[in-house]
Write a structure and sequence with these properties.
With 124 residues, the chain is mainly β. It contains no helices and eleven strands.
């Protein structure tokens, strides 16, 4: 089992920045693919970003490419999502996830572990 706890969400004005953190505990997360998804009210959960086990390969949704950066610090069992140039449409609950699937995947069902989520609200 892997437990994931997100932090760093909050209210920010459009154009601002936030950094989300995800602390992993339990079974070591070092060999897991990690990802971030988000879900806005009335919408389906959508992929945001993913990073492979050693942090060498990242992949982003088109909607956040160039604005968001995913990274990981395996020594700290922590994954980060730096969000810059935030827009009102980025408002959602953001979830940290871990997957045992080593290949790149953006499919929610291929992520085995999920955090409880952290709210990000961007005002216009």
């Amino acid at each position: 089992q892997v437990q994931l706890v997100e932090s760093g969400g909050g209210l920010v004005q459009a154009g601002g920045s936030l950094r989300l953190s995800c602390a992993a505990s339990g079974r070591t997360s070092r060999n897991f693919r990690m990802g971030w998804f988000r879900q806005a009210p009335g919408k389906e959960r959508e992929f945001v970003a993913t990073i492979n086990w050693d942090g060498g390969i990242t992949y982003y949704a088109d909607s956040v490419k160039g604005r968001f950066t995913i990274s990981r610090a395996n020594a700290k069992n922590t994954v980060y999502l730096q969000m810059n140039s935030l827009k009102p449409e980025d408002t959602a609950v953001y979830y940290c996830t871990a997957s045992t699937v080593m290949r790149l995947t953006t499919t929610p069902t291929e992520y085995d572990y999920w955090g409880q989520g952290t709210q990000v609200t961007v005002s216009s």
